Amino acid sequence: MRSAKLRQTQQKWELNDFNDILALPVAAVYCDIIVTEKQWVHRLRQGKVDERYGTTLLHDTADLVDILANASNS
Questions:
Q1: Long-range contacts for 33-39 (Cβ within 8 Å, ≥24 apart)?
Q2: What are residue 57's DSSP bridge partners?
Q3: How far apart are CA 53 and CA 21, in angstroms?
Q4: Up-side HSE of residue 34: CA atoms within 13 Å toward CB?
Q5: Interacting residues of 49 by C-beta distance below 8 A, sequence separation 6+
Q6: Is 11 a residue whose pLDDT tops 90?
Q7: What is residue 42's predicted lDDT score, i.e. its pLDDT?
Q8: Are 34 and 63 a contacting pair, CB within 8 Å?
Q9: End-to-end CA gap in the chain
Q10: How does pLDDT run across 31-68, given as a tens digit for each residue?
Q11: For the segment 16-39, what is each residue's pLDDT rounded down to a tens digit?
């Protein structure tokens, strides 16, 4: 994620980007669902993290509501 962010020049680094780079890979391996910024969802999908670990990656909280509603009905 860090190297991809460094290569990408259109979007400047923000204060919390370093924290995201440290925390999101761990969450992607151990959590079932992650809601984060669109750029990080894109980077994690590029690395096929969602496929390897079965993690659902979301950038919109509205999608989380649908997933949780479907899970409660199952």
A1: 33/58, 33/64, 33/67, 34/58, 35/59, 35/60, 35/61, 35/64, 39/5, 39/11
A2: 34
A3: 18
A4: 25
A5: 25, 28, 29, 55, 57
A6: no
A7: 92
A8: no
A9: 34
A10: 999 999 998 999 999 999 999 999 999 999 999 999 98
A11: 888 888 899 999 999 999 999 998
Helix/strand/coil for 35: strand
Q: At what angle do helices 17-30 and 38-46 cross, to 10 degrees?
A: 50
- Which residues does residue 58 pair with via DSSP β-bridges, in sequence order? 35
Rounded to two decimals, the pTM is 0.79
Question: What ranges do the domains of the chain cover?
Answer: 2-73
- Report in angstroms the alpha-carbon separations of 46 from 10, 43, 49, 66: 18, 5, 8, 24
**Amino acid identity for residue 25 in this structure:** P
Residue 54, phi then psi, degrees to nearest 5: 65, 30
